[in-house]
Design brief:
Elements (H helix, E strand, L loop, with lengths): L3 E4 L6 E4 L7 E2 L6 E2 L3 H5 L7 H9 L3 H12 L7 H15 L3 E8 L6 E5 L3 E5 L2 E5 L4 E4 L2 H7 L5 E4 L20 E3 L3
Antiparallel strand pairs: 1-2, 3-4, 5-6, 5-11, 6-9, 7-8, 9-10
Helix pairs in contact: 2-3
The structure holds zinc ion.
Zinc ion binds next to loops.
Length: about 180
């Protein structure tokens, strides 16, 4: 198990955390107990479409999804700068009306939202430029998806296929990947 660091809410010391959702941490410096800060927890959901998350919650398997995101998707690390840059960039394009959020999300954990290009455009990730054309779909690509499609950037652009089952990343080895509707 890969330990992460959280800041004690009482004394501000940095203490180790096993990443377990909703379990209190005891500070090794001041001895107080606390739940890891909301920001540390919400960070896990950075890439997840809220509808997908709600479905897992409804099925009583939110912990399973969270574990999958932490250890299969994030691989015990935080999101990379490029992952965060993708989120900031796609949200900017959405505000500018260049892309819109589709009523579907990627079928594989962490189930990122899918965006549709309203016009031709460019998504900038630091030095790299990902061009897209009107009506193409854009989704964040997890490390496994990057490997599979030989992508240099954490973004997949194209015509994504429809899927009907929601899967965890750890289950997808020989599975097809695609999107699934968030509104039915
Ligand atoms: Zn403390």
């Amino acid at each position: 198990m890969q330990l992460q660091e959280v800041v004690c809410s009482n004394c501000g010391a940095t203490v180790e955390w096993d990443g377990t959702y909703g379990k209190t941490v005891t500070c090794s410096y001041c001895g107080s107990t606390f739940l890891p800060a909301a920001t540390a927890l919400e960070d896990v959901w950075l890439m997840t479409d809220p509808v997908a998350r709600a479905r897992y919650e409804f099925e009583g398997n939110l912990g399973g999804l969270e574990h999958d995101i932490r250890y299969e998707v994030m691989r015990g690390q935080g999101w990379s700068d490029r992952d965060r840059a993708y989120v900031a960039e796609v949200q900017k394009l959405e505000r500018e009306g260049i892309v819109r959020k589709a009523a579907s999300f990627w079928a594989v954990s962490p189930h990122p939202p899918i965006y549709v290009a309203m016009q031709d455009g460019v998504l900038r990730l630091g030095e790299s430029l990902c061009t897209f054309h009107r009506d193409e779909e854009i989704v964040w690509a997890c490390p496994m998806t990057r490997d599979r499609f030989g992508l240099n950037s954490p973004v997949l652009i194209g015509d994504l296929q429809d899927e009907t089952t929601q899967r965890l990343c750890g289950e997808m080895v020989n599975a097809m990947q695609g999107r699934m509707p968030s509104s039915t």
